[in-house]
């Protein structure tokens, strides 16, 4: 029986009985995924860099949350690339960034629909693992983008930039703005978010350096990538710490809500704010003096790279092992790094001088 026939039979079974049972019964009928030394679940077999890119594939995008403009831009980048490659795009996902069980259901749905690959931004490093491993057992290639799972739960992770660079540079940006002195706080997204937690780890490490001895991180607050909660958390931070000098918000939803709060308060321009935001969200706060500088990568490029990685995996050009290389269309050549990580590049710092050049 051909693989596709097996998979179709299994899908019929999946609708007839419970999904979990059916998927377990069907597991092992397709190529197994194996954990390589780097820890990622590389697909079995050898990569063939000269393999032709397959057309007619379906790649499902599953962001942390669908109504977040950052993910709208990212996933549009994926959609555009898939169209160019002659494959199909679909997007599913929860509207809340703290709905991990919702994300699990969407992984199962995509598996049941027999997509060829999925690109997932994980709300939590471990919660999706069982579902993603089941997907891979069923021949679905799994790429995480933006926010990773545990490495053995996906074939490759398309990272926006080096996590270390992002964490350290955000501290450096804020330190300059507050003259290396005073209390600071972090306004993060969800408490479980892999990406934000990794960056915060590097921020804390950066703060240990002697240059920052007069700066003190007093609190990490969580706004859950929800505008209202992030706004209230900012307000709460300033009530609790009236001497606060600065806030780092490594989330596009958080930084926008914090800027909105500061901009309408007596703290405008006095309490400094930096972090990760989109130029379109932050433009007016840079103009009105609430924010001096912040950073981000191009989300559409991240989505494009995730889509191109998914297609390269599905075509056998790469398997997810360290050292493999592939060409991501006009984006050029990428090499898979340690742990199956592919890095988009360096982030851009936006300020009053350059923000006018960017439209996303
Ligand atoms: C939010 C999300 C996303 C993160 C950006 C910076 O939109 O939390 O995961 O990468 O901010």
TrEMBL record:
It is found in: Cell envelope. The keyword rRNA processing does not apply. Residues 1-22 form the signal peptide. Residues 59-317 form the Periplasmic binding protein domain. InterPro entries: Bact_Solute-Bind_Prot2 (IPR050555), Peripla_BP_I (IPR028082), RhaS (IPR013459), SBP_2_dom (IPR025997). CDD domains: PBP1_ABC_rhamnose. The keyword Signal applies. Keywords: Signal. NCBIfam families: RhaS. This is Rhamnose ABC transporter substrate-binding protein. It comes from Streptomyces djakartensis.
